[in-house]
Amino acid sequence: MPKLVFSRHGLSEWNKLNQFTGWADVDLAPEGVEEAKEGGRKIKEAGIEFDVAYTSVLTRAIKTCNYILEESDQLWVPTVKSWRLNERHYGKLQGLNKKETAEKYGDEQVHIWRRSYDVLPPLMEATDEGSAAQERRYAMLDPRDIPGGENLKVTLERALPFWQDEIAPALKDDKTVLVAAHGNSLRALAKHIEGISDEDIMDLEIPTGQPLVYELNDDLTVAKKYYL
């Protein structure tokens, strides 16, 4: 039975400051490091042995992946990094304080930007400071693939090819897979895996640093789901 483990990165420095993060490359806070390590210890206690790990190209997810593998004595496991597993891009909201943004635009508008399935945030231009279009890590991408902002629908459309080309084939080959990524990229994949509706996905929250285990049938439908 294929096994898939999701781990949202530990608390980041901007999570701690209540700021929109998105594609901004923010490090883990000390508490986030400990969350990631604890996740690794739980995986070791559960006896889960990975064949391959996947993560984004953002520091907080990469470090979470490494801490999990190190604490579970599996740092040698092959790891693949992809921009397709990046957090949802929050556009011009990136770097803004969530509370201050709510005071400016209203709680309802910010809730829609944060949680709705298909509403885009205010978009960032390629020439704006902090745009991913100016970063070397994305230089190999077609400029049309670099977002100025995303909702969950667009995040899923971006992540799905990686699921279909990399993760799903590994699972169908009966491999045990770790995906250490972000709240919204994992929510997007969970929506696809579990068949969650556009409305119900708004209520799904994946906590930081807590491994989520899927035991899957051969057709990759969910047989069992639980947190460690």
UniProtKB/TrEMBL annotation:
Positions of substrate binding: 8-15, 21-22, 60, 87-90, 98, 114-115, 183-184
InterPro entries in UniProt: His_Pase_superF_clade-1 (IPR013078), His_PPase_superfam (IPR029033), Phosphogly_mut1 (IPR005952)
Keyword tags: Gluconeogenesis, Glycolysis, Isomerase
UniProt EC number: 5.4.2.11
One of the record's GO molecular function terms: phosphoglycerate mutase activity
Site (Transition state stabilizer): H182
GO biological process terms on file: gluconeogenesis; glycolytic process
Catalytic reaction equation(s): (2R)-2-phosphoglycerate = (2R)-3-phosphoglycerate
Cell inner membrane in keyword set: no
Pathway: Carbohydrate degradation; glycolysis; pyruvate from D-glyceraldehyde 3-phosphate: step 3/5
Active site feature: H9, E87
Function: Catalyzes the interconversion of 2-phosphoglycerate and 3-phosphoglycerate.
Family indicated by similarity: Belongs to the phosphoglycerate mutase family. BPG-dependent PGAM subfamily.
Alphabetized NCBIfam families for the sequence: pgm_1, PRK14115.1
Protein name: 2,3-bisphosphoglycerate-dependent phosphoglycerate mutase
Organism from which the protein derives: Enterococcus florum
